[in-house]
Amino acid sequence: MRRSSHLLLLALFSLPELHAQTAIGKLQKEVVTYIDKNSSRFTGLSDSIWEYAEPSFKEFKSTQLLTDFLKIEGFSIKHNISSFPTVFIASYGTEKPIIGLYGEYDADPGASNKTVPYREELIKGGYGHGGAHNLLGVGSIAAAVAIKELIKKGKLKGTIRYHGSTAEGTLGTRAWLAKDGYFNDLDLSLYWHPAPVTAAATSTWDALIDFTITFSSKRMDIIRDNIAEANCQRAAEILLGVVQRLKQSANETIKLNYSIKEWENDLAHTPDTVILDFRIQCAKQVDAIQLYNEINKAVNDLNDNTVKAELKINRAHHQFLPNVTAMKVVFSNMELLGPIKYTTDEINYSLQMQDFLNRKKDKLLIS
After folding, report:
1. CB of 103 within 8 A of CB of 42?
2. Nearest in space to 295 (alpha carbons), one of 277, 271, 283
3. pLDDT in tens, 139-167
């Protein structure tokens, strides 16, 4: 978490300088030192959010914890952003430029685990921070507070905003914030996410289309003969055959998943229906659109005298568009910070995790 906060801070201070830096500047060093000195406060926030392990849209304790902390630090808080009760915006400063940082604090389903380097559920089937959003939410706060300190001391001009959001990707509350105009006056925004590697990402990702396909009977008079029901199920089976062929031909940057929401066999329930939920998630927008069009064509082809086939889009968002200039600056600051230094406890923890996962041990850790 400290590492991510350092990178965010250095990137913000370096963006006006498009040439490569050779040494950390005075203000950069000051904010890095601030993060290090206050690391226990931020780690405490992260640990608490880990323990709360609240699902998307229900992070009430996590939101309260973070907003209380930011209020003490002098930030003004706007609650219930875009009608989401656990989404908020914290702001400090009145001048330009206005910099946006982002945090999430929702846990993942089925990821409950004790704080051990192997699989041992804390709550069976419960939520947990397998996606490390406890780090994501607090890492950005650490950067925001360190920048606030310089603004407060008159060493830096600008406004820092922390957007506390939820449900990345699939439900994307940030999309609603954008729609409602909360990003309109930003001069720059930076987003990060915990990952197995430390990198400045310039690739596209996360083009997504969620949709539902419903097959239902048109001829209610022949349901008793089991004909319409067979037609609905047969149509769904044909479609799933098309989907399987598409999945087999897709490359590793494309995810095409589905689940059966309803597959009604009981003739006492009318009308008979088959409902399938689909998700297309791709690195490139063009791939997502192509897959969607092929599935939509197959659905239209399955409409006949006995079966009505409908496709409804539930949500969709465009692929991430990277800021290459900003990522070059982030990368240069990664070089300024140098390699990550691990403690003995951290190394031992990592080695135990590699043993559990049956992974080859990292030579850098044991050298």
Report:
1. no
2. 277
3. 999 999 999 999 999 999 999 999 999 87
Tell me the per-residue pLDDT of 294-313, one tens digit each, with 9 for 90 and over.
999 999 999 887 888 999 99
Q: Can you say whether the dihedral through the CA atoms of 290, 291, 296, 302 is positive or negative? A: positive
User: Can you give the pLDDT at residue 209?
Assistant: 92
Considering the domain delimited by 207-317, tell me its CATH architecture.
2-Layer Sandwich (3.30)
Query: What order of strands is seen across the sheet that includes strand 76-78?
Result: 76-78, 88-92, 159-165, 98-104, 188-190
Length of the chain: 367
Enumerate the CATH 3.30.70.360 domain ranges in the chain, comma separated.
207-317
Tokens of 60: 């009430």
Q: Do the strands 98-104 and 188-190 form a parallel or antiparallel pair, or are they unpaired?
A: parallel
| CATH class label, 2-202+322-366 | alpha beta
* CA pair distance 232, 79, nearest whole angstrom: 47
Q: pLDDT at position 9, please?
A: 57
Whether pLDDT at 201 is above 90: no
User: Given CA atoms 158, 11, 147, 31 in this order, what sign does their dihedral have?
Assistant: negative
pTM above 0.90, yes or no: no
Q: Round to whole Å and give the CA distance between 351 and 260.
A: 40
Query: What type of residue sits at position 75?
Result: F
DSSP states of 1-15: -HHHHHHHHHHHHHT
Beta bridge partners, 213, equal 276, 311
The token pair that represents 177 in the structure block: 């914030």
| CATH 3.40.630.10 residue window(s) in the chain | 2-202+322-366
With b meaning 16 or more CB within 10 Å and e meaning fewer, what string describes 48-86?
A: bbbebbbebeebebbbebbbebbeeeebebeeebbebeb
The residues, any chain, with a CB within 8 Å of residue 228's CB and separated by 6 or more, are 217, 218, 219, 220, 222, 271, 272, 306, 307
pLDDT at 268: 45
